């Protein structure tokens, strides 16, 4: 399948999320027709010209109208309550194939049940998986504004976080240009940083010192409980951060390979988002 034409329709699932909005913007800029799937069309707030339709990936029986006339599809692997793994991949893919979808990007590692269903369908598909979003640092905004400090456990962990705009650019390029069938792309930024290094970059963008204070696991439990986190969520996060695999610090060349430009550094992201921390 060749490059999409301006008359081709691309359906973006998760279109109102942090990444989904960026994908929509990139596709609009590429000049293709964009249809956005959301459970709340009235509150979508997407650009003019984007067709916003109601749909829920956990209820594939109702996706027919959203898929009608669609050439390419960006598909989530998590959805519903608490972003649980989708169990409806086979039904979604069957509906997509029946509707004439010919190209799919999957936001996943390439090895999950949704990806396996897409691969088995014979459609042109590509998996895109960001190690971590730089936008996750926005969770520090309140503490930085009010106290000038970031407090987290396991401060030595390094992650090659990606700018969400770069991830969206990769997805849009794959959908519009093609030529990536069967690939599994891990998307990162150009460097692996610790929370303390990210904190310093935010401080530099603000022109003032922002401190990083490492918490013990027990201190983190107490802080997150005071913030209203459920106990199971607290233990999940602590376990995840305590067992971060070294591979999350591995930098890839995906952004440059697919988009022909280098990925943005965290310092650039911090400078662009500085108003959120002031």
Automatic annotation (TrEMBL):
NmrA-like domain segment(s): 7-104
Domain of life: Bacteria
Pfam families: NmrA
UniProt protein name: Uncharacterized protein YbjT (DUF2867 family)
